[in-house]
Amino acid sequence: MKGFIVLESGEMFEGIIHSNQTEVHGEIVFFTGMTGYQEVLSDPSFKGQMVVFTYPLIGNYGINESDFESVIPQVDALIVSELSSEGYHYESGSSLLSYCEGHGVPVVSGVDTRAIVKRIREHGDMRAIITTDPSTLSFDKYTSLDQIDVVPTVSCDEPQTFGTGDHHIVLVDFGYKKSIVDSLVKNGCKVTLVPYQTTEQEIKQLNPDGVLYSNGPGNPKQLESLLPTIKKVAEQFPTMGICLGHQLLALAFGGDTEKLTFGHRGANQPVIDMETKQVYMTSQNHSYVVKEESLAGTGFEARYMNINDQSIEGLIHTKHPIFTVQFHPEAHPGPSDSDQLFQVFIEMLQHKGRENVYA
Ligand SMILES: NC(=O)CC[C@H](N)C(=O)O
């Protein structure tokens, strides 16, 4: 059926809508990786977002058993130029479209994705509505993603454990990617995944060697009530933060965040480690960044920087063993240039001191 993507800025784009839903609202963002659609659609950080793929052919290797980042799809919709009708890969168990249809995820194909991306780059990430009837739509009845506390919809309800390694990590779940657990387990950790509102006391009772604050969807400032707990925990245990976890740690110590015009979403974002001058190609998916000028007095120093726009990509604390990254060292999708950062975290647990980080 013919469908329309109506942007909050007023423009309208046509395509073929594959969905029973007649109207879908979300934040429209673009992803620049050539592959990785399965990881993207199952990454909880994309909750509330409609993803436009800049690569023109999507779906050609189908959907497999191993590349899911969570058990259910998380995106609000996929918008593609050409949709492959089959998955041409020996591991493919179903086509992208039949998987999305089976889970009620709307797909819009045959769309001029280059034109949409140009609009997003000019106007910024914005709201959009996918509809079969543009004459009746109204943005007024929907709340923008920035204003919604979306983490409760993706965090686990009960603790869960993974792996049997010697290092015990508490992973605080704001919408964790399965690959983070896999990376920790591969590096000799036992992981206890806990709900996002787990208290300081409960974390202490688990007696972890270290704490990792996960990635997750939405605006970090929606989680303001958790900041005192995050600060107290991070002052007591070696701590790592990834993406939303990085933003929350910065906020907890008095820093500030802001929204980028259009986020970094792709598999080739260049990041420099400002101390070693090493450059990593990184996997990213975020809208918000930590403001450099807000770091004064927080004890944090910027350690990583995005080479494209000079935004902060990671922090290290001057007093406590805490380090954070805005990018995804677990990759999936994307290059694993920075996966040794999990080993850096393990080193930090063993020495429990900042001086040994990156030794
Ligand atoms: N991948 C993430 O953790 C994203 C963090 C946050 N929701 C942002 O968009 O900036």
UniProtKB/TrEMBL annotation:
This is Carbamoyl phosphate synthase small chain. The gene is carA. Residues 1-131 form the Carbamoyl-phosphate synthase small subunit N-terminal domain. L-glutamine binds at S45, G216, G218, L244, Q247, N285, Y288. Transmembrane segments: none annotated. Belongs to the CarA family. Pathway: Pyrimidine metabolism; UMP biosynthesis via de novo pathway; (S)-dihydroorotate from bicarbonate: step 1/3; Amino-acid biosynthesis; L-arginine biosynthesis; carbamoyl phosphate from bicarbonate: step 1/1. It comes from Halalkalibacter suaedae. It is an enzyme of class 6 (ligase). Residues 1-167 are annotated as: CPSase. It catalyses: L-glutamine + H2O = L-glutamate + NH4(+); hydrogencarbonate + L-glutamine + 2 ATP + H2O = carbamoyl phosphate + L-glutamate + 2 ADP + phosphate + 2 H(+). InterPro entries: Anth_synth/Amidotransfase (IPR050472), CarbamoylP_synth_ssu (IPR006274), CarbamoylP_synth_ssu_N (IPR002474), CarbP_synth_ssu_N_sf (IPR036480), Class_I_gatase-like (IPR029062), CPSase_GATase1 (IPR035686), GATASE (IPR017926). It holds the Pfam family CPSase_sm_chain.
